[in-house]
Amino acid sequence: MKYYPVHTGYPSYAEVNLAIEAAFAEHGRGGVQMPSKVYVTLIENGDFRTMPAYLPTLDIAGVKIVNVHPNNRAKGLPTVMALTIILDVKTGIPTAIINATELTALRTGAGGAIAAKYLMPRKPVTLGLVGAGRQAGAQVEATATALEIDEIRVWSRAQKSAEAFASRYSGYNARSVSIERACDCDVLITTTPSVRPIVMADWIHEGTHINAIGADAPGKQELDPAILDIAEVFVDDPGQAIHSGEINVPVSTGRYDPAQVAGTLGEVVIGKKGRSSPDAVTIFDSTGLAIQDLAIAALVLQNGEGYELPFP
Amino acid sequence: MKYYPVHTGYPSYAEVNLAIEAAFAEHGRGGVQMPSKVYVTLIENGDFRTMPAYLPTLDIAGVKIVNVHPNNRAKGLPTVMALTIILDVKTGIPTAIINATELTALRTGAGGAIAAKYLMPRKPVTLGLVGAGRQAGAQVEATATALEIDEIRVWSRAQKSAEAFASRYSGYNARSVSIERACDCDVLITTTPSVRPIVMADWIHEGTHINAIGADAPGKQELDPAILDIAEVFVDDPGQAIHSGEINVPVSTGRYDPAQVAGTLGEVVIGKKGRSSPDAVTIFDSTGLAIQDLAIAALVLQNGEGYELPFP
């Protein structure tokens, strides 16, 4: 059994996007085992999630354990930290423990990039960003590897964050704008921890694709539910989306019927589902899949360096 | 973050029993968070289970990951291997990774001992054992710490195993016997991986307490369901027992109604439930709780030695 601290030498987005796309395809073909993630609530507004899965095409199985503690920043710790434990599929022996904190950001970014690649017909694209934190950066970098970006419009509740983000991505013509202006784009990416709608239906024009990334726990939502009424909603996993994705609040209030979901991203990747017309508004409701964690773990195991630990 | 290989220096059964009893009591009071364990099926007849929990009284949270691969013995590996990951409840940062293979055996033994202590009114006791493997030994040792044992009657499908077991525990007047004779006892402990009943109702006399330990996955059962009809069945966790405990097969066929369950071991420990009379047959249906794993992990963290690992 080896421990992989993974402080440097991350896989490139070219590799990550490819691995994540293959994992979604296998999900679309029904070739994976992945129970819904399980939530445990802790103190100080924190929780942790346990995400087991088995991805036979890569001969890899394991569990990601990931916390979300919004108050951590004040303590000098990341809000989200993660470990992935890998088991040998033939014997069940744990073979690797991987620091998955940064990998979680990368694989989520890649999920958005794959969704945009399949659901946004126009190229090159204008990206709109609502939220300018770590995940917004991951989405930009992963998407830049999958699509040509000719402009970025970024909004953050903290204008300074948006300005810093814009100067970091000035190579893509990034500018800090109003939230309405950010929504005027080809691919809108929302990455905030909001618990009430902040993106209004009036601001979204025909043909836009939205990556709704922020909602990842019961009670969180970023989009005006009126957008869901007109949009074609693709989810990563139906069970997880209903429990904790962008649709979780409107489903729980009866405002949105889960039967309206147009399909999964996996089905989109294998060509079984897709946007109905260039003018449709499409949404990818991302909650994060355990098979994404296994797919990126497999890249680390190929190239990373680990410490040998005694086991059993 | 530290890794605890735990190859020596196990906590004593005196400590383990006390810690496990306290964990069951807190479960009985409803003071824990513990979603049902989640199963993922692997190849070669193996699976792994993910067991997250939070035990506020000990300020401890985490996840045990444990496999079951019956074919491992031929490969020179344990059938069951486990890791427990501990998270700080205030920040979610992983603080410890513990080799929980042997700890799993200890905490399961202690669960049986606590059940026998509360549900077997006669002292000293004759123990009957059906199955003579690692867990049978753990049950004997934990029970010997909780109760006075004046005789052990042990049966195994492999008579040599039963004889070796009897000589190992000769201090408790242990003898290898027929399965019928093993069932003629005060506390019967079944620890086999059987998928069909091997303990018949005719063999069980009034007043016996049965620790049904072996069934821990859908499809497994050791007891003639006619025993469930006459017995008072206590479970560790209702959801887990219905899914994968001794009652899982009779529940799935409609032979046993889960509403017949008399209570949980936690409720027994806090005095809310108990055997109705000295003549009743009682059963403890053990599936293994994640809070048992956290309770024994807390003992290791107090005294064990770990390797420092870089995180985050």
Observed structural traits:
23% strand; homodimer; alpha/beta; 2 domains; 312 residues; ornithine cyclodeaminase, domain 1; Rossmann fold
Helix content of chain A: 25-40%
Q: State which percent range the strand residues of chain A make up.
A: 15-25%
Total helix count of chain A? Answer: 10
The level 1 CATH classification of the largest domain in chain A is: Alpha Beta
Largest interface: A-B, 48 and 48 residues
Work out the count of structural domains of chain A: 2
Order of helices and strands of chain A: EHEEEEEHEHEHEHEEHEHHEHEHE
The mean pLDDT of chain A is 96
Structural class of chain A: alpha/beta
CATH superfamily of the largest domain in chain A: NAD(P)-binding Rossmann-like Domain
Second rung of CATH, namely the architecture of the largest domain in chain A = 3-Layer(aba) Sandwich
DSSP, total strands of chain A = 15
CATH topology call of the largest domain in chain A: Rossmann fold
Oligomeric assembly: homodimer
Largest beta sheet of chain A: what is the strand line-up? 9-8-7-10-11-14-12-13
Low-confidence stretches of chain A are none
Shape of chain A: globular
Q: Supply Rg of chain A.
A: 19 Å
